[in-house]
Amino acid sequence: MTIQSICLFCGSNKGTRAAYEQAACELGQTLAQRDIALVYGGGNVGLMGIAADAALAAGGRVIGVIPGFLREKELAHQGLSELHVTQTMHERKALMEDLSGGFVALPGGFGTYDELFEMLTWGQLSVHSKPIGLLNVDGFFDPLLAMIRHGVAEGFVAEGNLQLFVVAATIDELLAKMNAYRPAPVNKWLSHDRI
Fold first, then answer.
1. 55 and 31 in contact (C-beta within 8 Å)?
2. CA dist 34 to 12, 28, 48, 83, Å?
């Protein structure tokens, strides 16, 4: 499987570590160099803006998807290859999913978690079968991964759902894992005796 477009979920802030900015910049450059379109939330701020600027500077194609109320606050990037404006956040996520062949999460806050978990949930429900990758910069996602494993141990997350995403500390490793990804069938529903 060769991915032609990747949707990036990441912070609208830069975070406290230079490694986060460096990873966003390197990801944008790498996608451009590999002729993979970058799809993202359309903003000009934080890690989002850094990744978009890096991809554009390297000659890449960058597609933004932003709801109108954020565009009106002048948060939209003005130099993108394409900018789609939606009415709602829900429409934004649906369009980003539709435009993308896979998803990558970098460090971020509530918005990043929301987007990541919606795509994981859609994968669990077979709404899509696209690869989802976490770029674990400086161990940022370690606590989240521990929480997911805790959900498995406590019976709230099926162990097979751990196959819905891949994790790596480097961009090259992450993209290799995503290109090798094959969705595994997961029994999504509780058995009748547990309802």
1. yes
2. 25, 10, 19, 21
